[in-house]
Amino acid sequence: MDVSWEPVEQGDMTGVLLGYEIRYWKDGDKEEAADRVRTAGLVTSAHVTGLIPNTKYHVSVRAYNRAGTGPPSPSTNVTTTKPPPKRPPGNISWTFSGSTVSIKWDPVVAKADESAVTGYKMLYRQDSHSAPTLYLASKSRIDIPVPEDFTHAFVQIRVTGPGGDGTPAEVHILRNSGTSMMVEDSVTRPVPHVAIITTNSLIMVTLISYLEL
Q1: pTM (2 d.p.)
Q2: Is 66 exposed, middle or buried (0-12, 13-18, 19+ CB in 10 A)?
Q3: Which regions of the chain are under pLDDT 70?
Q4: How far apart are CA 188 and CA 180, in angstroms?
Q5: Mind listing the domains of the chain with CATH numbers?
Q6: How far is CA 28 from CA 59, 60, 64, 82, in A?
Q7: Distance between CA atoms of residues 115 and 85, nearest Å
Q8: pLDDT for the residue 85
Q9: What is the full DSSP assignment across 154-193?
Q10: Ramachandran bin of 113, using left for φ above 0, alpha for ψ from -120 to 50, beta for the remaining angles
């Protein structure tokens, strides 16, 4: 999660501000057992990792100097998102029509303990020497322009949503003469030379109160 707060006013503190301390603890735990992250200087935001998905946390911020930490801000509550679906898109198929390749796959349906699917991300690379291109799709189908001399491409497809990005399905697309559609078991066939994009789940928390030392 990303935590941000208003800075302490210079007139509200004594000594030299060294930074801020973020404390966060699970609902039901005591604040004394909270995990802590410290920032240095005048930074007024922090990125906290290692949280448990679908879990309620309490968060507070304190300023600190050489004498120690000041009083905490009022705590705020945040519930982390559910993780993305574990199942990658399956039954991927494609057809060629002139200078376009149409790629489709079975939609991924989130389970009760998984975050909703809001779309799909596809990394497309024509060969091992070209840079990958990221495509976004709201449905389980996408049309991509290809050159006339297209022979093959490497593709990764994964779900995306509030819980982050899911596990990618990887396929090697070939233009075979006499074959208008090919279906490949994308879960069991790895593809070399394909970059992977992962996105962490972010939870924004704003703490408005001032801190004093």
Answers
A1: 0.64
A2: exposed
A3: 11-12, 177-213
A4: 23
A5: 2-82+201-207 (2.60.40.10), 90-184 (2.60.40.10)
A6: 13, 15, 26, 19
A7: 7
A8: 95
A9: EEEEEEEETTEE-PPEEEEEE--TT-SEEEE-TTT---TT
A10: alpha
